[in-house]
## 1
Amino acid sequence: MPIKLNRGEEIIAQWEKEGRSQVMDSPEFLEMMSEIGKDMEQFRQEYKRTVALSWRDASKTILTA
Amino acid sequence: MSITTIVCLPHELREELTRIMQEEFEVSMQVAKEAFDAMLEGYFERLKKGVQFVIEYPYVDKVYRDSYYAYFSSKRRLYQKDCIRISVFEGEVLPDQFRSAGGIASLRERYLGFMVLRPTMPHVIGRSVLSPHALRQSGFLSLTGKFQTTVNAVKFEAIGFPHSSQDTETLTCAETSIWALMEYFASRYSEYKPVASSIIVNVLRSQSSFRQIPSEGLTIEQIGFALQEFGFGTKAYSKGRHSSASFLNLLSVYVESGIPIIVAVSNEHRGGNIGHAMLIVGRSEMRDEDIDKLSVTEAEDTVLAAAMKNKGVSIIDCADVKRSFVFIDDNYPAYQLAPLDAPTAYYDDAEWRKCEIVDFLVPLYPKAYLEEVVARRYMKRLLLGELFHIPAGTELLIRLFMVSSRSYKDYLTLETSFQRDFKDIILMMSMSKFIWVGEISSRELIKQHKASGLIILDATEAQVLHNNALVVCGYGDCCYYRNASGKQLVRNFLSLEEFNVFTNNLKGF
């Protein structure tokens, strides 16, 4: 008889049944995560420029020795 | 034409090799001796006591043959096309051992690799793969590949990082770095192929406006182009665009990720004219005193610095540990150790010792889109947010590395110290081929090679605006994972306890 290996799913189902797990959908939590996401996106956009300039600078180095 | 095989002891090596080089390479004894003294003596001196050698000639070496047919054979002067191979064994080697099952098994256990001598006097050291265990020096971790070879007609497996000296005509530092890197990847992953110098020249033909051979070196851009053509998603980083600390931190994290890195070193900033390429393939083992010396410095990032101050929490990067790194340098034997801020510390020449790492190239998996700097900062933002209850005064130590999800899951399956339920949830998760992992620890825990928190990010998710890169995280008394739809985070009050850190990238810590 085939056996399904799903211990991970069983654990999650059991946690839900026991009320141990909580979906994080409160406005406060979503707001906090959104703030982190926005801050990170701003940082990422700024860093993209650093990376592009980094690539431009590095490309000139001649390696011969 | 028959193959001659000679077993010899270290003290017999100079006489044997100079005689064989004189005969096989058709050079004078003087030239052979000079080549031995200048190039080989230092190489063999680094080997641990008790090794024995097996010399075989003539040997057909695929890398030299490529250079020979593409270049050396076109010269008026006659260059020999055959090489000499020297195999290294730990302990005694008896001729009869090569012809009995028991003897071969014993030899295979004690095989430490090989080196090829090519007739490009005096730059005679060709393709070599030597085990780090062959050296007197220990206490470092290096990436290694496995290479099938033979000695006296018996198959052996050489384990080590590929190395070659430059012949200065078809192979300069730039080409040998590409060659060694591709040899390594080809030995580890079926999607990559080894590349000889003629292949590198062909790939770069469209990028070159001038004659390519004899080689006058390559620019970082050309190396990046070649690696891109060979299947990588290459990234280049320049010191001038980063603070010194973040530049070296970035490099250190990629080393921790088990990725061989091409570094460009130069003394031009100090009025010199040296530009040299080397590989970094590992680091020294972590010592308790290295951890103790780690200092808490204010984050360069003002947002992070403010968040740490507000929460009274400090986060130290494990990558900031001052230690030595393992260099593959074609001017020196393999596995040279030097700190990142003095990468040429082992050079005798004072001008060379002034070199600094100015740029580095990382051959990434093409779909690893999430930048290391972004991943690192994102993890810190999560730790400093309200996800975890981290008391004021806490000092966290974060160890960041990239790993294939396959390797990470394989480690987790057998890691008994990891919280079992959380482990099964992670193992069940669908993940990108590569992930960024942050292990959260403390000074005392990391000395025991343990951590108590974990953050896993999807390395294919460059977009961080909606927190989609976050796969799972846990620290203190709670952990977060995604629900079945993957759209919402679920929290569970579950302590990860202490678990052994992941050490498979560099096979040690």
## 2
Amino acid sequence: MSELNIKYDNDALLLDDVDYRIIHATQKGLPRTPQPYHFIASELELDAGDVMQRIQRMQDIGVIRRIGAVPNHYALGFHGNGMTVWDVPDEYAHDVGAQVGALDFVSHCYLRPRHLPDWPYNLFAMVHGRDRDEVNAKMENISELLGSQCRGHSVLYSSRILKKTGLRITERR
Amino acid sequence: MQKESSNTIKKPLSDLQKKLLNDFQHGLPLTPTPYLDIAKELGVTEDEVLNALTELQESKMVSRVGAVFRPNRIGVSTLAAMSVPSERINEVAAIVNAYPQVNHNYEREHVFNMWFVITASDNDQLDSVLKDMELKTGLSPMSLPMVEDYHIDLGFPLQWGEESA
């Protein structure tokens, strides 16, 4: 395990304490009041314009991906939720990952290290469907797309949600 | 802990709720009155938007309305997996879930049957959580940190059936 390391970029260093306080105040969700940013601002004793500007900036530098409703796929009737995993030669992984990540039925697509001999898969694509047949059919689509660039794949279905909360940042050092 | 099978839709979604889910997954405006602005765009009142969102959240169809943070931009995270003997699942889940750094944990049908995400403020904290877990459970978590993210996040396309599922 040498080259495959956590890709960690230093954008976080561009955040100051006020940004972190805003992140803390919003990570459980935005208040459902007519002026949610004013509400947060008054809780943090900040100016509402400042809060919005900082959130905009965090969006611009990619710390915040989007602001919106986070759907619970399962409750919405997408009962499939299959984590498909693929063993793709490292030299193709980048191109293949970009193709798979662009598919509209893939909600997350990540390259991760293998953990040999127990775990040979390096590409993870979360596929959602109304049932397992639909997920399996979509997995076949990915399999065709990868063709000979795939040395093996599998799908892991979830049988139970054991814990699910939004991102929580604890104890900043 | 929620059993997935008990989590079915009890009440059909209203047209407004579908629109809120589809159109505003990634587009909550960053303005002083975002809910009013959405309401104007959809031709409804602010109260209707707020009530629809409250109902979506109470029925657990959306887990929250707010900012989605990009992994590894603030803090560091990893996807970890454990192979847990079936009779120990609940006991081990209780230990793993007790860490505030664990935000998702799924039981999956595989030899590696427990999959969870750990988010920590830095690599040292992440390592110490992994080591502490191993100590408390006697099981060794396999850590698979993200190397590259290929997902283009445009929200999730919710294709409603004709008779609206």
## 3
Amino acid sequence: MTGRAHLARRPLASALCVVAALIAVAAIAAAGRLETFDFLSPGACDRPEPGVRSADFLMGTYVVISAEGPEADPAVEEAMAVLRDIHRHLDPSAPQSDLAALAASPGRDIPVSTHLIAVLEIADDVNRVSGGAFDPSIGPVVHLWGFDADPGPSDGPDGGSDAGPEDGSATRPRTAPPTAGEVTEALGLTGWHDVTWDAARRTARLARPGMSLALGGIAKGYAVDSAAQVLAGAGVDRAVIDAGGDLYLLGTKPSGEPWRIAVRHPRAEGFLGVLELPGGTAVATSGDYERFFVHEGRRYHHILDPSTGWPVSGVVSVTVLAPTAAEADALATALFVLGPERGLELAESLERVEALMVDEAGTIHLTTGMRAVFSPELSGEDSRSGGRGGDDGD
Amino acid sequence: MTRGSGLGLNPADLRLGAVILTVALLAWAPLGWRLAGAPPDTDFQRKVFVVTTPEGAVALPADRDACYVVTGSLGKTVVEVVDGRARIAASPCPEPACHAGWVDRPGERRVCLPNRVVVEMVTRSDGKAAPGGGSDSETYDAETH
């Protein structure tokens, strides 16, 4: 009697045996998959992959896009392409950037990208509402201070959310401040009214030789907004676009809970606190802690007052919420320059803009709306820090 | 047939079925233990450190203490993982203060830009990092600085 004949006479028994065997094989396969699950081998996972993540070094910082949705994959790819295009036009390290072309041909209308025109329009708004506290024409002063220096083979250190190189030339980081005379001379080459543009013709002009633009306080934010527009237009469900801490939060989390954004502590390891934010919010922070040098016991950082040409004192960190990252980025710099009192007053006057400012004493100043979304970090190392972890009023 | 069951199974069938079912149950046991015993965030959303360099990205387990040497744009860089935290322990960059500190929560990141080395902790869902994947109070979706 053959096995085949035996099984043929016991159809139910055969079926049970086959089912049991299949269960065993499936169990072994499932357990094995969990054991060997490899983040770098997404192909090993045969379930639908909800998350797409792409990152690159652009705009002088590390840019990360995380997105989710049925069209997330091509949308993220397209968004990264837009970011690279913006980098090519607006990053001072790019040899053919609009900034280099403008600085090289003062007094002439120079064809520029739509990106630069858009950035100039937003910069003009922030310059106006801040009374000149945000002024991208400060390029020559930034160059004098060496905060446009390239420290290595990459695009330069982060923290250039406020100052940035302007003419593509590389300098070295300073170890001592310039003289008062040098600062005054460089200030003579600034002036927002001497920066003009024609949106219809897509041209821009710097009025005088030696002038240059520093877009470090707005270009990253603009790039984040541009990427967000691509993702939203493609129907992506949710995304976080992060350009060195300049953020845009698109959509809502699967849980329906608010996005949780940590705010870096300006003077200690860890975080100052956490922001719980709805989708459609942009966040940007300007701090004095990432680009600076110390000379004779005094810290000289990269956020320069356009009216004096010297690093701003009184504030160490400003975080701004706004409808767009470009606005948040530029306003963070403007509020830093204005100081806690005038800065918070400006933020309170603007629709859908909130601010968190940390002064030199570590005191945290919050706008009314910020109080509702900011929770101080109370645990571990952060509680030891200078920040007072809470609202203490304006 | 007198000793067979009503389903037409003889003792040999029953023995074979018992053996196969036992093997099946034993095979499922570890998986069941995992699903029942593992915390939610380490089940299908596991935390790993991702180190990005000019040569590519690697994933490092958060639960294994070790020092790793990676190559950045400026040279050899040491990434240290201790007690579920990671940091850039040594780097040839000119401003190591820029990336000082530990990464110990999803959403945290340290970037050495001149060296083009990034250390970050991610929460992954179904094998890839997804925005808003974290839901516990220790998880951040991003960091502003």
